[in-house]
Each structure stands twice: as structure tokens, then as C-alpha cells.
Amino acid sequence: MKFITWNINGYRAVSGQNPKTKYGEKIQKNTLFDFIKQENPDIICLQEIKADLEQIKEELRTPPGYESYYNCATSKKGYSGVAVFSKKKPSKITNGIGIERFDVEGRVIEAKYESFTMFNIYFPKGYAENERLDYKLDFYDSVSEIFAKKIASGESIIVTGDFNTAHKEIDLARPKENINTSGFIPIERQKLDKFVEIGLIDSFREFEKENGHYTWWSQRGRARENNIGWRLDYFFVSADLKNKLTSVKILPGQDGSDHCPVVMQINF
């Protein structure tokens, strides 16, 4: 099976619903559907859709050949939100984790399949010395507890999305300069250590041990052009899936967002 995760930073923009202006010319292109047709994943997980379902044109809600599932923020319009497009219909879809202060932001879709359970998550951003950092850390603790229970019960799980944290120094271009920046604060990184402790594996690092591989770049200062980035987007899998992994790749050349897609293949 081929899985893709991508923080698209606005569904209406990447799907061509809202035209972009380039060199004074309006361009209306469905980058998202073109990408899905090209890559042909079994499942694609999107984060930061920034739209309610009724704000998306009906013909743009579901790519051909897929079932679509959305979890949109109810706390405010045009904020957060996740979506899953799947060729095969899951046996069960659950939006959220059952905790209202997190669920109003539309951050989680849990999809249950015959061989595994998948979580598509847009983890909160934190800001150093700000209440949103506590919110982010509490969110990590809450989902970690859920993952631990599922793994303990023998379920195979896949956790994917924008984690909004670079785990190790190797996962960002300038670790020393960012040690006090949210997204790389030690207490945030410890939450990813906890994922590993409960039995989750960072699938990308099973194939690539070197630095220079990032999934997000600031839109300032030609950061992407110079590859001054962060790896914030992951596929973590339960340890029982380790030997089933066949490849995990980052696609930095894909345009449409300040994040790029990550592709994972597993033989079930």
C-alpha cells in the first residue's frame, strides 16, 4: 500500500478553487488532484485544509476513485482541519480523540482498516512561554496515551501528519540557532521520544540516516531554495510494521504548499 501525507496549507488554494496570481497573471490549477493522479496513492492524508466542507466546491471535495473524509475546525472558520482520501472504504472513521478542547480544532481523523488503524493528525503549534505550548504538550500526552493502549492491545497503527516538532538535530538545518524556538524546544522533542518509548518507529529513518532532508521551509529569505528547512511531517508506525516497510521518501520538489509530501510504502 502507498500512503502519502501532506500539509497543504489551504485546500482551496491547492485545489485551484482560489486562483493564484503569478507575474500579474491569474492561474487556476488543481495542483492537489494532479498530484494525486500522478502518485496514485491508496491513501492520502492532508493537514491544514483551512476550510469548512461547505466552503469547498462539491466537485473539488473528492478526487476521482477515492472516498473522502473531513474533520473541520468548529472553533473558527478557515483554521486547522484534516482530510483523508482513501481508495478503500475504512471499516470505521472517528473524528477527534474525545477531548473537546482539542476536537473543536479539527485535528484528528482515525481510520480503521482490516490490517491497521491510521491516525491523520495536525499537531498544534506551540509558542515558547505561551499557553499554546501547554496546549500542544497536553495534546501530545493525550494522543500518546491512545497510541500506547492500541499498541498494548496488539493493534498495528500508523500515525502520520504534521507533528510541528523536529525530533532530532538531524531534522532541521540550524538546530543550535533554534534550541529555544517552539518546534525544537527540548520539552517538545521529549514527546516524540515518548512515542518511540511506547513502540512507534520513525519510518523515514529506517531508510535515510543523513541530514538535509526536510518537509517544511519558511517562506522568507529563499529558505526552500537554499534547503534551510525542518522535518516536521512524519510516518510513525508500530514496531510490528517495521519489516513490512519497503520505502519512505520526501518529495521536496512538489509545489503547492510550504510543506512537501512524504510517501510511505508498506507490504501488507
Topology:
Layout (H helix, E strand, L loop, with lengths): L1 E6 L3 H4 L5 E3 L2 E3 L3 H9 L3 E5 L19 E5 L10 E5 L5 E4 L4 H4 L4 E5 L4 E6 L8 H22 L4 E6 L23 H12 L2 E3 L13 E2 L11 E2 L2 E6 L6 E6 L11 E5 L2
Parallel strand pairs: 1-4, 9-10
Antiparallel strand pairs: 1-16, 2-3, 4-6, 5-6, 7-8, 8-9, 10-14, 11-14, 12-13, 15-16
Helix pairs in contact: 4-5
* CATH homologous superfamily classification: Endonuclease/exonuclease/phosphatase
Query: Beta-strand level of the residues, as a percent range?
Result: 25-35%
Cα shape = globular
Summed up, the helix count is: 5
Written description of the protein model:
It is built from 5 helices and 16 strands. Helix content is 19%, strand content 27%. The protein is globular and about 50 Å long. The chain has a single domain, classed as 4-Layer Sandwich (Deoxyribonuclease I, Chain A). The longest helix is centred in the middle third of the chain and has 22 residues, at 131-152. The strands form 4 sheets. A 6-stranded mixed beta sheet has the order 5-6-4-1-16-15, with no helix packed on it. By secondary structure, the chain is of the alpha+beta class. Helix 4 runs parallel beside helix 5 (186-197). The chain has helices at residues 11-14, 31-39, 100-103, 131-152, 186-197; strands at residues 2-7, 20-22, 25-27, 43-47, 67-71, 82-86, 92-95, 108-112, 117-122, 157-162, 200-202, 216-217, 229-230, 233-238, 245-250, 262-266.
